[in-house]
Each structure stands twice: as C-alpha cells, then as structure tokens.
Amino acid sequence: MSNHILLKPSAVSGHDPETSDYRITAPNVGAMEVPEELKRDCLLFYYPDCEQLARRVAECSEGKVELAEITWKRFADGFPNLFSLLFFIMLPAPVFNHRRRFADGFPNLFVKDAIRIRNRHVAFLASFHKPSVIFEQISIIYQLPRLFVGSFTLVLPYFPTGTAERVEAEGDVATAFTLARIISNIPLARGGPASVVIFDIHALQERFYFGDQVLPLFESGIPLLRERLRQLPDASNITIAYPDEGAWKRFHYQFGDYPEVICTKVRDGDKRIVRLKEGTARGRHVVIVDDLVQSGGTLIECQKLLATQGAAHVSAYVTHGVFPKESWRRFEGEGSNGAADGFKYFWITDSCPATVEAVTDRAPFEVLSLAQPIAAALQI
Description:
Blueprint: E1 4-5, E2 42-46, H1 51-59, E3 65-70, E4 73-74, E5 80-81, E6 86-88, E7 121-125, H2 134-143, E8 151-155, H3 175-184, E9 194-199, E10 214-219, H4 222-231, E11 238-242, H5 245-251, E12 260-268, E13 271-278, E14 285-293, H6 297-308, E15 313-321, E16 346-349, H7 353-359, E17 365-368, H8 371-377
Parallel strand pairs: 1-17, 2-3, 2-7, 7-8, 8-9, 9-10, 11-12, 11-14, 14-15, 15-16, 16-17
Antiparallel strand pairs: 3-6, 4-5, 12-13
Helix pairs in contact: 1-8
C-alpha cells in the first residue's frame, strides 16, 4: 500500500498556544494537549470494513488504544446475528453458542462476556457508507453504553447524509437531521453522554442538529493535508483553490498563510460552469480543497479551468472520497503536459473504506490516514 501515508500533524495544526495562528488553526484535539495523568486506555470496537483504520489507530496510540472485536453474522433474511460474539482480540475467543433466531427471522442479539468491558472507556469505529449497514451498527452502538461502560465514544469519520441538510421546498426531507437525531439517542454511559467524533461534516450548521444527549466533536482532515504539503519539493509554490464559495467559507480559515484562488459556479441554461472568481494560478502548484467528492464533475472542471489559467500543476484534496459507481476512475494522473493532462496528486483520507481499497496503489491518489487524529480524540 505504497500510496497510504500515516502523518502526525505538526503542533501548528492543533491548538499550541505558543505557535498557533488564528488564520490556520484547525479544531482538532492535539494528543500533546492532554495531560498524561488524564490520558486513558480505550477499548476500540469497529465495523469490519474499518478494520485497517482501527489497527492503525491502535498502532499510533502509544498503547492507549486496545482493539476489541465483534463477529458479524447475518441470518438468511439478511438481518444481523450478533449473539455471543463480543470478545477482545488479544484474549482467546470464547466458545460460541449455537446460532439463535426468532421464529419470524429477526435477529436475537446477545453479547457474551460483557462483564469484561464494565467501567472501561469504550469506543466504536463506524462506517455508514450505505443505508443497509446502518441498522446492525446502530444495534451495537445503542447496546455498548448500556453494558455499564465507564464512557462511550462513537467515531463516525464520514457523516453520509451531510449534503441533505436543507429544505428548499415543502416536502423536502433533510436526512442529515434525521441521522443526527438517531445518533443523538445513544444511551447514556455511566460517565455521562456519548462523545461523537466526526470529520469535516459537510455544513457547519449541522453541528446544531445533534441533541443534548450526545457531545459531538468535530475534527478536520486539513492538518494532515497541511503536513503533506510541507513535504512536497515545491512546498513554497503552493496555492490553495476552492471549487466554490461554499468550500471557501468552510476551509479558508485553515489556509490563511497560503495564496488562494476562488472559483465559482454559474448557470448557462441547464449547465453549471466553473469560472475563476479571484486569485492567480499562473506558474503555481494549485491544490483544490473540498470536504467530499461524489461524481467529481466540479473538481474536473476546476482542474481544466486552472490549467487554462497557466497552473504548473493541479492537485486536489477531499476528506471524504465517496466516489459512487467507481467515479474515481474519471481522475487521471498528470502526464508530460503537466496540469493540462490531469492531477499531480489526489489526496483523500481513509474515511470511506471501500474507496481506500479501490484506489490503493493507483495514481494520482494518496491516502492520508485519520488514525493519528482519531487516537488523539479518544483521549478526551
């Protein structure tokens, strides 16, 4: 996995009072900010698709995060069978009971050896990448705090309904609010409300969709990008570009020390055309920044526009590489003609496991792992 990169963001990416600049400060928890006496061991459960990320979290946690496992089985009707399969992977697996089911085919969920996690700090690394996997994960998420755990944290790197946050016509359903309500009903643990860790949620106002029963912690992947940019041979020639005004509002405060280019979308009949609003791309390595990508049409139009404006290279970063229907295949690497041919780099994080697997060792993609900021977030 040569294009997977595990970075430790520098102090300026967090809240170091000696070095931080308000123009470039990300909201992330810094592991160095947590006093040693307040750090705590954590048992991290995870959905199977998140196993690679979970193992990286444990590796970079300096022994503070210990992996635990749930064995996921389903009945013939597709519903999950999670009985008697909760165990720590560092211990011998318990003897499994025979699989049980109710007569109507719904799952009979049972957690064996649950006494082992009492009074412990417990977390669950989730992936809601498609609707069909949410029910079984919610079943576990709702159950773990009720097993007398000391505290509970849900790590949901990608909040999938974030783009459905508005009601523009009577009858529209803002499913971002619906999912936030589901998460807000996580039961209290012995230590109080559950923490919910989310990276680069699509719209900042969505933080207000969550109820008082949970404590949302909104993190960002931008410090990872900033660290990667510092490693580039042309680090002094970087310009940050935003594909629209929304992306500028979302991220410009984290790039106050870089030159910026702002694009805008204008309508031409039924088409939406990307045009340059302000800034200069000529001769620069321009990095387009946004929170997520789906079909990728806007990013490709931006790349073409910046190339015509004389950019030496064009790269892109998104925290969440969703890429439905394998739309990542649309992104070509840079050729002999530089920016005119395609992207120098396309950086994503490992928030969407299926995409990470698909683009491994495929140019122009590089995967910046969220493992380090997740491990830090689990310390509060």
